[in-house]
Predict the 3D structure of the following.
Amino acid sequence: MVHLYEGERTVKSGPRVQSLSGRPLLSIVIPMRDEAANLDPMFARLLPVLDRIGMASEIICIDDGSIDDTVARLKVLYRQHSQIRIVSFSRNFGKEVALAAGLRYARGDAVVLMDGDLQHPPELIEDFVAYWREGYPVVYGQRRPQAGRGLRRVLTRIFYRTFAVVAQTKLPEGACDFRLIDRRAVDALNSLTERTRFTKGLYTWIGFRQIGVLFDVEARKNGSSGWSNLGLWRFALDAITSFSMIPLRIWSYVGGIISLFALGYGLYCLLRESIYGTDVPAVSSLMIAVTFFAGVQLLSLGVIGEYLGRVFTEVKQRPLYLVAEEVGFDTGFDAHGE
Ligand code: UDP
Ligand code: MG
């Protein structure tokens, strides 16, 4: 039995909880930040899909510090659809953390992670469940390759390539958070207690047989995406530093190579002086060498700092998130679909 530290309490993730009727339970986890305008259209598409699938279900909505009326509207919807559960964070903790929370709250035999802005078509869940029933523990939505456009796409490609080399973990091209995960794999993810969570990497790290289902990303229904360029840069740094020590190790090799060069150059100078007499080197080349290597040293210190900062975050042992309110967790699982 795995014990997970989660906020103020210890959660036992032991024997799986099934719906009261003994039917397998499907959990849908949806992180939401200011998605009030998308709630109605999203549920209008999601609920019929769940009906067609015919499993008992729970829809876990993680309100990630929304400042619009997402929570108020969710509560209205909860009164109509009792399979909705609401977890409201005390503030915004970010989508990765919201997903981690959702995976811990979910009690399903299979858990589906899905965005709340309808960029992930709910209809695809039917295909996910079909593959799951065939025996695939992880089924992920895979964005259909689009014609290359924009700097971000190019940078994203460069990131994936770099990550594959540096972290020696090949992330499936276009795989997104939209996915179905079997209970066994969910427990595996929940047992990873790290605070800096690069979820895409963790999905690959846990292994299990995985299969992708191609789909076209739809345009965001309402509102705008929360990713700034700085946010993406931080995300990339988190990804690489949490999956690889190469940026740390590389400096000993760089240092070694530079020392060898310096040694060789020193010997060369010694030889030249003994043959041609004393020679004063140009000041500018000295300046260039000094500033260049000062730069290299600061850069390597910076890399150490990046890791040290993350070690600091880990040792503080702060909870990953804080919950302000939970709604709907005291009801049975088979309220829906009976
Ligand atoms: N989201 C969240 N917390 C955040 C930012 C986003 O829970 O701090 C949710 C958001 O409500 C949506 C999903 O994560 O359901 C994807 O967010 P977004 O559309 O902004 O990202 P993108 O689709 O551009 O990756
Ligand atoms: Mg989106």
User: Anything to note?
Assistant: The pocket of uridine-5'-diphosphate (ligand 1) is lined by residues 31-33, 35, 64, 92, 94-95, 98, 115-117, 119, 220, 225-227 (CB under 6 Å). The chain has two domains: 25-220+227-243, 245-316.
